[in-house]
């Protein structure tokens, strides 16, 4: 025990003692170390944003998007899970990633490990995501679909009607009407705007 | 000599006979019997060029009905509008609750009735699946000639 304390003490001494290396060397070390650590951290986080990573656990849901316009369309531009479900803004992204660690626990506990359990919880899960998007004014939609650049003259009649009134005035946000555009819907009983 | 020739001929006939009938059967399976269908006058094992898929018209004015009680046609696209146990996308514009806000056409009161004429408080299950009767239109020429004319009162 004494030995261990001695070792720790000597380490502490070394850490506290001014280094004999030049300031320039230390700065360089910090600079390159910073690049490696920050780069590594970001690369790691980006890896958790890929479709492959998501489908590791959410395989069934990833399947659902395939028939929708965000997966197959005339121009070949598409959105992947993280484009819509992870904020792009750095600080919001970190917050969402930390929240997701709770979901990892739920996954490990097997809270939703059968299709039946998933179906039962689906409305709750959807509600949460709808709430999140409602609160941030559908920011993840708007990262691509910017209202400022919408040309009403080439939109459909129904789109113009809604976009030029409710959306333009800020009464409604994208997710208020565009629910279930990339997924199957849960039981919609009682959801505003549905039957 | 004659007998030998006859026997050879008979043998040859017997050997080749099964292959004839197989051929006949194969012919019968693909022979369209001269009947021309929407696929054209082609044998059943011939794949006609299917042509391009017709595009559903994106937005158009409402279409007139051709006969009394014709289910109105859908004058817009309906891609990925789900109608199932959990959700009915059509009703989010056309239900009585939502129609005034969205400007959609209200579904008729008959959609609330059972087959015995009893009026329910919500859409009758037998009328829930909109696409059974109401369909969107593609920009396509008629496949067969049709000189149907609506009755005088609808013209």
TrEMBL record, chain B:
Task: Please describe the quaternary structure of this protein.
Answer: Component of the periplasmic nitrate reductase NapAB complex composed of NapA and NapB.
Residues engaged in binding heme c 2: 111, 130, 133-134
Q: GO annotations under biological process?
A: anaerobic respiration
The listed locations are:
Periplasm
**What InterPro entries does this protein map onto?**
Multihaem_cyt_sf (IPR036280), NapB (IPR005591)
Q: Give me the ranges of the annotated region Disordered.
A: 21-41, 50-69
Q: Where is the signal peptide?
A: 1-21
Q: What is its main location?
A: periplasm
Keyword flag NADP? no
List of residues binding heme c 1: 76, 90, 93-94
Q: Which GO terms describe its cellular component?
A: periplasmic space
Annotated protein name in UniProt: Periplasmic nitrate reductase, electron transfer subunit
The taxonomic lineage of its organism, from the top, reads:
Bacteria, Pseudomonadati, Pseudomonadota, Gammaproteobacteria, Alteromonadales
Q: Name one GO molecular function term.
A: metal ion binding
PTM field: Binds 2 heme C groups per subunit.
Q: What does this protein do?
A: Electron transfer subunit of the periplasmic nitrate reductase complex NapAB. Receives electrons from the membrane-anchored tetraheme c-type NapC protein and transfers these to NapA subunit, thus allowing electron flow between membrane and periplasm. Essential for periplasmic nitrate reduction with nitrate as the terminal electron acceptor.
What is the similarity comment for this entry? Belongs to the NapB family.
- UniProt feature, compositional bias: Polar residues: 28-41
Which is one Pfam family of this protein? NapB
Q: Where is the composition biased (Basic and acidic residues)?
A: 56-68
Query: Which key words are in the record?
Result: Electron transport, Heme, Iron, Metal-binding, Periplasm, Signal, Transport
